[in-house]
From TrEMBL:
Biased composition regions of type Basic residues, renumbered to the chain: 59-72
Name recorded for this polypeptide: Methionine aminopeptidase 2
Record: residues binding a divalent metal cation 2: D229, H298, E331, E426
EC number: 3.4.11.18
Native species: Bombardia bombarda
Localization: Cytoplasm
Length: 445
C-alpha cells in the first residue's frame, strides 16, 4: 500500500532529482417350521422360543462396522483458492522467502555469527506468521494473474482476491474480531492507468477492466498483525511492456541495495537511476519513464501498514538508516506522465490512526461506527465494502465525522495527469539479524 512523501520532503530534491453399512439387526428365522393349529400355551411357548432364538441369531450375525476411511489431506490448492494454507503446510513449516547474505564489509560477519543466528532463531513465531501470510499472498496473486481478464468488473476482481485470502487463512472476518486474527492486511487496490494507488471499488461501482488498461493490483495479507504488502501490474497490450519492465527492475534494484545501515536516500538514488534508464513509445511518441517522486516505500509495524520510516524512489538527502529487525515494503512506481501524483476521486480506503485523539463524539452514528472499527479492524486499513459486508448501512456521515476529528485517516486515490500510464511493483523484506529475506518473493515476480 503506497505511502505519500510529505510535501516538505520534495524541497530536499536537487534539480537532477526531480525527473457403512449400518449393521442392522437382521433377525434370522429361528425355525423354518410353519405354525400348527394348537392351544394358546403352545403358541406362547413357540413365540417366546422364536424371540429368544431371533435375538441370539441377531447377536451372532451382527456385522462389524467397517472403520471409516480418513479423508486424505489436500496436497494442492483449489481453483479458486479455498484450501487452508495450514493444511498444505502442516506443523507451521511454511516456505521461506528469498534469503540473501549481507555482503557489505560491515555486516558480512552476520551470516555466520552465532549470536546473530541465535537471535534469528528466537523469532520463530514471528517468521512463521510472516511466511504463512506470504504464502497466502503468493497463491492468491498467482491465481489472480491467471484468471483476471478484460471484461471483468473491478468489484468482481476485488471480491475474488479477498474471498480467497480469507479462505486460505481460515478467517472470514464476519464474526466480531475475526478479521483482526488474520485476513486482509488492507483492501485490494485496483488502480487503473493514470491512477497509481489507493483505488478500490465502493458499493455500486460498475467499472469494467478494458483490454488497453494498465492495472496495479496491490493487496495485503496479515496473520496476527504481521502484514505482507506486495503488488504487481497487469497489462494486456504488449506495448506497455517497457513500463512494467522498468518498474520491476527498479524494485529489484531497491531490494538488492537494502540492508542494515543502508541510507534511505541512497536506496532512492539507485531506484531512480534504474527506473529512468527506460523509455516507452506510445502512439508514435517516446516518453521517458519517471519515478513518481512523492510516493515511497515504508516500514511495516504490527497491525500498522505505514511505519515511521520511508524509502524514497528518487535520490534524496535522507540519511535515515535501515536497522536490524526492520520490516520494509520496497515499492516503486513509474509513470509516463509528470511523475507526481495528487489526490483525486471518491475515497474508498480508510484506517484508524494509531495515535487517534480522544474526542467527545457528539454524533451517535460516529460513536457506533468507531466501536465497529475498533472491534473488527483496529488500526488495519479497511474500505467501505468491508463495512457493507458487516451489515453496516447509512454510515457515511459518521465515517466523515471520524475523519474530520482526526480519529480515522482517509486515503483518496492518487493520480498523475490524465492520459498517462503508471505501474507498480512491491515486495516485503525482513531485515533479519543474519540474513535479508524477501518474504513475498515468488516465481511470478
Amino acid at each position: 500500500m503506497a505511502a505519500q512523501t510529505p510535501a516538505d520532503e520534495l524541497s530536499k530534491l536537487s534539480v537532477a532529482d526531480t525527473n457403512g453399512t449400518n449393521g442392522t439387526k437382521t433377525a434370522t428365522p429361528a425355525a423354518n417350521g410353519q405354525k400348527h393349529d394348537s392351544d394358546d400355551d403352545d403358541d406362547d411357548e413357540a413365540a417366546e422360543g422364536t424371540a429368544a432364538t431371533t435375538e441370539t441369531g441377531a447377536a451372532k450375525k451382527k456385522k462389524k462396522r467397517k472403520p471409516k476411511k480418513k479423508k486424505k489431506a489436500p496436497t494442492e490448492q483449489s481453483d479458486p483458492p479455498r484450501v487452508l494454507i495450514s493444511q498444505l503446510f502442516p506443523n507451521n513449516t511454511y516456505p521461506k522467502g528469498e534469503e540473501s547474505d549481507y555482503i557489505d564489509d560491515a555486516n558480512r560477519y552476520r551470516t555466520t555469527d552465532e549470536e546473530k543466528r541465535h537471535l534469528d532463531n528466537l523469532n520463530s513465531d514471528f517468521l512463521s506468521d510472516y511466511r504463512q501470510a506470504a504464502e497466502t499472498h503468493r497463491q492468491v496473486r498467482q491465481w489472480a494473474q491467471k484468471t483476471i481478464k478484460p471484461g471483468q468488473t473491478l468489484t468482481e476482481i476485488a471480491n475474488g482476491i479477498e474471498d480467497s485470502v480469507r479462505a486460505l487463512v481460515g478467517h472470514s472476518g464476519l464474526e466480531e474480531g475475526d478479521a483482526i486474527v488474520a485476513g486482509m492486511g488492507f483492501p485490494t487496490g485496483l488502480s487503473i492507468n493514470h491512477c497509481a494507488a489507493h483505488y478500490t471499488p465502493n458499493a455500486g461501482n460498475k467499472m469494467v477492466l478494458q483490454q488497453d488498461d494498465v492495472m496495479k493490483v496491490d493487496f495485503g495479507v496479515h496473520v496476527k498483525g504481521r502484514i505482507v504488502d506486495s503488488a504487481f501490474t497487469m497489462a494486456f497490450n504488449p506495448r506497455y511492456d517497457p513500463l512494467l519492465e522498468a518498474v520491476k527492475a527498479a524494485t529489484n534494484a531497491g531490494i538488492k541495495e537494502a540492508g542494515i545501515d543502508v541510507r534511505m536516500g541512497d536506496i532512492g538514488g539507485v531506484i531512480q537511476e534504474v527506473m529512468e534508464s527506460y523509455e516507452i513509445e506510445l502512439n508514435g511518441q517516446t516518453y521517458p519513464i519517471k519515478s513518481i517522486r512523492n510516493l515511497n516505500g515504508h516500514t511495516i509495524l504490527p497491525y500498522s501498514i505505514h511505519g515511521t520510516k520511508s524509502v524514497p524512489i528518487v535520490k534524496t538527502n535522507d540519511t535515515t538508516k535501515m536497522e536490524e529487525g526492520d520490516v520494509f515494503a520496497i515499492e516503486t512506481f513509474g509513470s509516463t506522465g509528470k511523475g507526481v501524483v495528487h489526490e483525486d476521486g471518491e475515497v474508498s480506503h480508510y484506517a484508524k490512526n494509531s495515535d487517534a485523539p480522544k474526542v467527545d463524539l457528539r454524533l451517535t452514528s460516529a460513536k457506533s461506527l468507531l466501536k465497529v472499527i475498533n472491534k473488527n479492524f483496529g488500526t488495519l486499513p479497511f474500505c467501505r465494502r468491508y463495512l457493507d459486508r458487516l451489515g453496516q448501512d447509512k454510515y457515511l456521515l459518521g465515517l466523515n465525522n471520524l475523519v474530520s476529528n482526526g480519529i480515522v485517516e482517509a486515503y483518496p486515490p492518487l493520480v498523475d495527469v490524465k492520459g498517462s500510464y503508471t505501474a507498480q511493483y512491491e515486495h516485503t523484506i525482513l531485515i533479519r539479524p543474519n540474513k535479508k529475506e524477501v518474504i513475498s518473493r515468488g516465481e511470478d515476480y
